[in-house]
Fold:
Amino acid sequence: MSTARVFQFVKRFSGYPSEDDFKLVEEELKPLKDGEVLGKTLYVSVDPYMRIYVKNMPLGSPMIGGAVARIVESKNPEFQQGDIVYGSIGWRTAFVSDGKNLMKATHLPFDVPESLAIGTLGMPGRTAYFGLLDVCKPLKAGETVLVNGSAGAVGNVVGQIAKIKGCTVIGFAGSDPKVEYLKSIGFDHAFNYKTVDLHQTLTQVAPNGIDAFFDNVGGEFADTVLLYHMKTFGRVSICGCISQYNLKPASEAEVSKGLFDTQTMGPHLQGVILAKQLRIEGFIVTRFSDRNDEANAALVQWVQEGKLKWREHVTEGFENMPKAFIGMLKGENIGKAVVKITEV
Structure:
């Protein structure tokens, strides 16, 4: 009988997660039934959204997450032994599935690692594609696009797509090496938000304002941009708010209202939104799932043409999943953070 190592979510996060919030267990996998497959995990993704989604999970649940795997046994006619698949597999080294949560990674070029199916050529890449080209439409050549969190899995792809479309791109990240990386992949302006004044910097490099703002951060950064730097009819795509994800838990009263941090509310922005006729839209990439093939095809083409560069921050060893997750939330990665399962 096959077994799997699985990380469970066993303690509610308070601020940044700690390694003690997870428990590594071994479980036996049931023999395959007709219609099922056995998969061995190759790479597991760590992403900011996991920090929020686990709030509604019962303690003791397997930790959620996307992963890439190889089918090692199949009783499902849709999958063959050796197929590379990706999907919501979770933090586990092996699994039995009916295949409904799996997609074949047939869109991957032969000369890239399988891990790109959960990176630039996967969910993060599609998030960048739809969040910029749909939520911020119409994106026109010559416009100015601002991206924060721009050295992460989504942000760097957003900036590169904006350049492909002929825009001027401004990026902010949290370290000087990240700034150098952004410059190396074509960002017109890149800054370490920890060492510059955001308002002054944007006034200098975008004196006429921002046309499209792709927000991964929220908080004071977003407040400053919305209050002072958006053009009339500007578009704002809200992809994440990582500045708030790791704050201390809210009170029960705040939780009941849907708030997920203890900070006071920011400036009241309705006046400037009205005056500048801004369009601000939050989105979750799964709403575009019926167009995955479209995004995959465009992203693959740009990679093959050399217009879209990819970079990964790879942590070796399944036992290091919590460490990789915490490091990603603290901004230790440049590009997509993944864990390579070395025991496969």
